[in-house]
Amino acid sequence: MSTVRIARQRAPLAEPWSADPYADALRTGRGPLFLRRADGWLLPLEVERWCADADAADLEVLRRCEGAVLDVGCGPGRLVAALGARGRRVLGIDVSEAAVSRTGALGGPALRRSVFEPLPGEGRWGTALLIDGNVGIGGDPRALLARMHELLCPGGLLIAETVPELDLDERVLVHVTDARGAVGSPFPWARLGTPALLRHAERAGWCAGSQWTAGGRSFVALRSRSTSSSAEPPNSAAVMSSQRVRKPSADRPVAEG
């Protein structure tokens, strides 16, 4: 059984991101919100930053994007909105209905779906983003990297954010919690520093590109195996950032000219 097939079987475990603590935080644009391990360790989640406009570190990521862009785990949509404002063809995906709704309210096309489910334009995206810790999706970096390779065009670009200044390679079971003690169901998550991500990428056949830091955050660019000329962007209304988005449905974002 392939790693991607295994990962697709795990996709329902992403649903805790739709639990009330996360959804409530996105609706209000405020934390505090945390990922909590079984041993009590807490990772603060930067809800206020996610719900604000793209900052300087974000804009440096967006400057490096090529072709049509898929934002995996788009959250409240600041990157999707910023890319659309720059004329990029872009689609955000997220398992959280609150995240997709907030992205749509910003005018960004978004789809409520796991990265391990069928997606528009598979194999034709110029750039995919795993920002704000989303390299941890599914708790299995190798399966996630394999899936990202399926989504990108030959020679496509993957930009991932890593844990700063640490050679960390951690797979844990976590749940979302807030300051009042509300919790979601447990789900697998991963945390990777740049060295660990590069090791996984090398084994999976990715080509390492640039590395940089900005605003206290760390980023890595990877190339999919083939370096052939860039493909045409996906021919789908779902990625037309110039179109005004109405209310996204569970199956596809709806756009009108």
Structure description:
One of its GO terms (biological process) is methylation. Residues 223-257 are annotated as: Disordered. It holds the Pfam family Methyltransf_23. This is Class I SAM-dependent methyltransferase. Residues 248-257 have a biased composition (Basic and acidic residues). The chain is of the alpha/beta class and 257 residues long. It has a domain at 55-173 and 189-242: Vaccinia Virus protein VP39 (Rossmann fold, 3-Layer(aba) Sandwich). It is 26% helix and 28% strand. The chain contains eight helices and 13 strands. The protein has helices spanning 3-10, 20-28, 47-51, 56-63, 78-85, 97-105, 141-151, 194-203, and strands at 33-37, 42-44, 69-72, 90-94, 110-112, 125-130, 152-162, 169-178, 187-192, 207-214, 217-223, 244-245, 255-256. The protein has a seven-stranded mixed beta sheet with strand order 5-4-3-6-7-11-10, sandwiched between helices. A hairpin with a 4-residue loop joins strand 1 (33-37) and strand 2.
- What's the helical proportion of residues? 25-40%
Quick one: biggest sheet?
7 strands, mixed
Strand order, sheet with most strands: 5-4-3-6-7-11-10
How confident is the prediction overall: mean pLDDT?
A: 85
Please work out how many helical segments DSSP would assign. 8
- What percentage of the residues does DSSP assign to strands (E)? 25-35%
- Class by SSE composition: alpha/beta
CATH architecture of the domain at 55-173 and 189-242: 3-Layer(aba) Sandwich
Radius of gyration: 17 Å
Question: Looking at the structure, what is the overall shape?
Answer: globular
CATH superfamily of the domain at 55-173 and 189-242: Vaccinia Virus protein VP39
Please give the alpha-carbon distance between the first and last residues.
43 Å
* Pattern of helices and strands: HHEEHHEHEHEEHEEEHEEEE
Number of strands: 13
Please name the CATH topology of the domain at 55-173 and 189-242: Rossmann fold
Class of the domain at 55-173 and 189-242, according to the CATH hierarchy?
Answer: Alpha Beta
Spans of 5+ residues with little confidence (pLDDT < 50)?
A: 1-14, 228-233, 235-257
